[in-house]
TrEMBL record:
<keyword id="KW-0732">Signal</keyword>
<dbReference type="GO" id="GO:0005886">
    <property type="term" value="C:plasma membrane"/>
</dbReference>
<keyword id="KW-0472">Membrane</keyword>
<feature type="transmembrane region" description="Helical">
    <location>
        <begin position="375"/>
        <end position="396"/>
    </location>
</feature>
<keyword id="KW-0964">Secreted</keyword>
<dbReference type="InterPro" id="IPR004074">
    <property type="entry name" value="IL-1_rcpt_I/II-typ"/>
</dbReference>
<comment type="function">
    <text>Non-signaling receptor for IL1A, IL1B and IL1RN. Reduces IL1B activities. Serves as a decoy receptor by competitive binding to IL1B and preventing its binding to IL1R1. Also modulates cellular response through non-signaling association with IL1RAP after binding to IL1B. IL1R2 (membrane and secreted forms) preferentially binds IL1B and poorly IL1A and IL1RN. The secreted IL1R2 recruits secreted IL1RAP with high affinity; this complex formation may be the dominant mechanism for neutralization of IL1B by secreted/soluble receptors.</text>
</comment>
<keyword id="KW-0677">Repeat</keyword>
<dbReference type="InterPro" id="IPR013783">
    <property type="entry name" value="Ig-like_fold"/>
</dbReference>
<dbReference type="InterPro" id="IPR015621">
    <property type="entry name" value="IL-1_rcpt_fam"/>
</dbReference>
<dbReference type="GO" id="GO:0004910">
    <property type="term" value="F:interleukin-1, type II, blocking receptor activity"/>
</dbReference>
<comment type="similarity">
    <text>Belongs to the interleukin-1 receptor family.</text>
</comment>
<dbReference type="GO" id="GO:0019966">
    <property type="term" value="F:interleukin-1 binding"/>
</dbReference>
<keyword id="KW-0812">Transmembrane</keyword>
<dbReference type="InterPro" id="IPR007110">
    <property type="entry name" value="Ig-like_dom"/>
</dbReference>
<feature type="domain" description="Ig-like">
    <location>
        <begin position="176"/>
        <end position="249"/>
    </location>
</feature>
<feature type="domain" description="Ig-like">
    <location>
        <begin position="263"/>
        <end position="369"/>
    </location>
</feature>
Amino acid sequence: MVERMQNHRFQDTFPRSSSSHFLWERMHGFFFALITCTVCASAFKLQQGKSTENCPDHTMFFQYYHELHGEPVVLKCPSPRYKHVDFSALTHNITWYKNDSKTMILGRDEDPRIWAKGDALWFLPARQEDSGVYICTRRNSSYCAEVSIHLTVVQKAAARDIAYLQVLFTFTSGKLVCPNLWEFTTNRTNTELQWYKDALLLEDDSEKFVFLKESSSLFFTSVLPTDSGYYTCKMAFPYEGVTYEITRTIKLQTLEQEKRITPIIVYPTQKTTSAALGSKMTIPCKVFAGPNSNIYTDVEWLANDTTIDVVYKQNRVMEGERQEITENGENFIEVPLIFKSVEEVDFYTDFKCLAQNRYGSQVLPTRVKQEAVGLPWYIATIPVALACVILVGICIHKCWKQRADKGYTIAKV
């Protein structure tokens, strides 16, 4: 009864005529359609919203892999250690995603070619279309760390483009190391390698080379200047009845004993790095210091050709701790550039990694660009709501015209 009275009072505010009653019905339908469009627009907003699966507090760390098409590849989720966080403790829960997909990469039961197992992501084998950015997330009850791993898969004809640089001094003994075989040699009894120089198989009966069983190294009895060039190591990798081939190409650079090597910046290799406003980010600068002691090599970051601590006095952007690393008998230095929170001014700042010693220097510039994001929901929904209003207006106009054609007139209110 109350509901009927309320409806009656509301309708009494309009003149009682058939045409005005018709107008009220159409306006009522218009408001209902507008509300429906608003709900529709809200649903659109939710669909466009950024996934909440990301770490609420995360640090980005970049690592790069260059691999060959058709060969097995294992990406490892690293445990970088910098002054503000020890990532190595975050091993309780590790998940993997490809950057352009929200689908978690699961175990081998789900996909026999690409699958995750602990801190490793396996490709058996990798294909060119697998190239992209993979995100591994380490989290525990108090912190979350995301690691961006850039994978580039190339055809075997381009193997020299992704060769590993190694340096030997002339007229001394030395060795080349076939790199990144650990995941494929663990718990195996047969890890015999074949070595090639410029596509020619090296014979193990030569006095120049020493081949040791179960070793991933090629030993030189005496290195000559003519030994420089490209070397390839190959290893068979049997896995569950299928035998894969693993290939590594090494660019050997020979130096005279009295000469010393200038530092070489290994990465960042990209000219720009994408970041979202307000996000945390780490860009490491990794420098090859050669087989000599690396204490004489200095590595630092510059912003607009000025030291970081001068430009960013509040330490919002700062250098992390210097790390000295030995890989395959070679010395590397790594100094990270740490963004506590990316701000717009960073997109207009020229960052450079500078590596120098007494023999020379190298500078590698890089820029931070804003990550592409969708429009805010209140802007993105305007076209949807506007389209709804136009459609409803057209409908009302047609209905009025039909009534007018039948001889009805619209009373003036």
